[in-house]
């Protein structure tokens, strides 16, 4: 591959208007009158996937789907500007080859979307370059490779995972690849996760990948045998290191799919769906793992609704938002729902769109609006691609009201942007007048900088941390007020 324009650029200065001494909190009624766009209007079959949608730094929506043409499936792509203007439909990849199962992720550093898909039982990647789509295979083997998932690290480099056949045993395993630049070329390092056990029906493992800003990969997937399926979690603690494995148990008897997001502070957020057997209602559960701590008890996010195939995102404050499909028995109803937390931390459910809508892909833009891509045709055979934008911000705007941002004492500490390149804005709140200290420490506890060391009145404040001369890596900010302490983790990129 020779992506001639794949030149890394500096991270643009993130707009601080969103945070500006305010942290989002959830409001309701956001889906009552959504903006609904019909992307294509034909009788030709077309379908979205769990990662059909991504949003860039300017809130441009990038949407991919598989489209049936004479000779088989092809991958199509289209954009939607923040003003609501849709670009021209483009075909991704080789127009002479059957391609399906697309997934996309936006690279802020490179300034382009990456799309992975299946072609000739291999995993391919594509990206726009000079007005055309370039790319090539990630894998090249005699084994079957399917169900790709993609994400991008803090350096703008894509990582992918998929289902593959073990070249020795023939068992289904998880394949993984991380990319790096060799001159102008994007090169992939491919490996098979030997400890991933997908069972005899492993093609349904539904992998989903997330990575930290430093490039440490996490993959969740359905593992185990029929009747004893659970979500397995594989991750690495260092680039090139060994894989770790664990099994996560929800309130379902069997779990089939999951989606993960890694927050800027290193927390893991996970949505899991499954059921209690054939014909039993499905449920979506939410898991949270604070950085450096154990998984917290799972929470039922779908309440009394029968729910499957969740798509997850978190807002600027780290609050989770989940979109999912409703089922009745073993059938999809065609209704898509949203689960979010209210100001008390309780889950609430509202409908996004109903009737004949399937396979939602969901993200939140920088203004706090939710975006859902989905397809129709399952109930009506009127095949279409839809984009649904919430009528209101999912995160609202209210000063420091999100309980996820507070410790027990009510203090708050937030770093924005995170990861950090040249400087970060430190937002904090104190609940009483007192002496405030904010210091920055490296991973071995050495103090690197002191940002605040004086008396502050109760309320919201901010400080600026300029990071010139510091090495890339993980740093910790400590807010100490009258003996109480709050800590935030951040990542410094080169």
Question: What report would you give on this structure?
Answer:
The protein contains no helices and 36 strands. By secondary structure, the protein is mainly beta. It starts with 34 loop residues before the first strand and ends with a strand. Helix content is 0%, strand content 55%. Strands 2, 3, 4, 5 and 6 form a 5-stranded antiparallel sheet that branches. A 4-stranded antiparallel sheet has the order 1-29-28-27, with no helix packed on it.
What are the defining features of this structure?
494 residues; mainly beta; Neuraminidase; Immunoglobulin-like; 2 domains; five-stranded antiparallel beta sheet; four-stranded antiparallel beta sheet; globular; disordered N terminus
Secondary structure layout:
Layout: E1 35-41, E2 46-47, E3 53-55, E4 61-69, E5 72-80, E6 90-92, E7 99-107, E8 112-119, E9 122-129, E10 132-137, E11 145-152, E12 158-165, E13 172-182, E14 185-193, E15 208-211, E16 217-225, E17 228-236, E18 243-248, E19 254-262, E20 268-275, E21 282-289, E22 299-300, E23 307-314, E24 320-328, E25 331-341, E26 347-353, E27 358-364, E28 369-376, E29 384-393, E30 412-416, E31 423-430, E32 434-441, E33 447-456, E34 459-466, E35 473-481, E36 484-492
């Amino acid at each position: 591959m020779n992506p001639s324009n794949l030149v890394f650029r500096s991270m643009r200065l993130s707009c601080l208007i969103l945070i500006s001494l305010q942290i989002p909190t959830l409001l309701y009624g956001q889906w009552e009158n959504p903006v609904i766009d019909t992307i294509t209007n034909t009788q030709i079959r077309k379908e979205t996937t769990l990662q059909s949608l991504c949003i860039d730094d300017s809130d441009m929506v990038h949407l991919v789907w598989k489209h049936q043409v004479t000779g088989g499936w092809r991958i199509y792509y289209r954009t939607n500007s923040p003003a609501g203007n849709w670009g021209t439909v483009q075909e991704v990849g080789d127009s002479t080859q059957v391609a399906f199962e697309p997934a996309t992720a936006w690279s802020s550093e490179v300034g382009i979307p990456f799309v992975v898909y299946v072609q000739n039982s291999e995993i391919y990647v594509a990206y726009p370059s000079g007005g055309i789509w370039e790319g090539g295979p990630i894998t090249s083997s005699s084994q079957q490779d399917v169900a790709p998932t993609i994400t991008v690290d803090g350096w703008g480099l894509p990582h992918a995972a998929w289902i593959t056949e073990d070249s020795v045993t023939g068992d289904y395993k998880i394949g993984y690849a991380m990319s790096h630049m060799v001159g102008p070329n994007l090169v992939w390092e491919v490996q098979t996760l030997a400890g991933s056990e997908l069972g005899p029906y492993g093609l349904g493992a539904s992998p989903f990948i997330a990575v930290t800003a430093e490039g440490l990969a996490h993959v969740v997937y359905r593992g185990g045998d029929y009747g004893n399926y659970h979500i397995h979690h594989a991750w690495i603690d260092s680039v090139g290191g060994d894989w770790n494995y664990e099994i996560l148990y929800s309130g379902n008897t069997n779990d089939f799919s999951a989606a993960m997001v890694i927050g800027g502070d290193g927390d893991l957020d996970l949505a899991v769906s499954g059921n209690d057997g054939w014909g039993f209602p499905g449920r979506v559960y939410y898991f949270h793992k604070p950085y450096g701590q154990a998984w917290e008890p799972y929470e039922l996010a779908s309440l009394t609704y029968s729910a499957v195939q969740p798509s997850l995102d978190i807002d600027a404050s780290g609050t989770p938002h989940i979109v999912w499909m409703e089922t009745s028995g073993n059938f999809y109803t065609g209704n898509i729902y949203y689960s979010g937390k209210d100001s008390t931390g309780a889950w609430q459910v509202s409908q996004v769109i109903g009737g004949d809508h399937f396979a939602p892909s969901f993200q939140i833009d920088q203004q706090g609006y939710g975006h859902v891509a989905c397809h129709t045709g399952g109930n009506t055979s009127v095949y279409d691609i839809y984009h649904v934008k919430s009528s209101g911000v999912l995160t609202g705007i209210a000063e420091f009201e999100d309980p996820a941002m507070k410790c027990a004492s009510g203090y708050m500490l937030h770093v924005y942007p995170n990861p950090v390149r040249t400087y970060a804005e430190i937002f904090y709140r104190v609940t009483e007048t007192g002496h405030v200290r904010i210091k920055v420490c490296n991973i071995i506890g050495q103090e690197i900088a002191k940002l605040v060391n004086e008396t502050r009145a109760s309320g919201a404040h901010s400080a600026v941390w300029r990071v010139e001369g510091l090495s890339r890596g993980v740093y910790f900010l400590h807010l100490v007020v009258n003996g109480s302490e709050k800590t935030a983790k951040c990542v410094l990129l080169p």
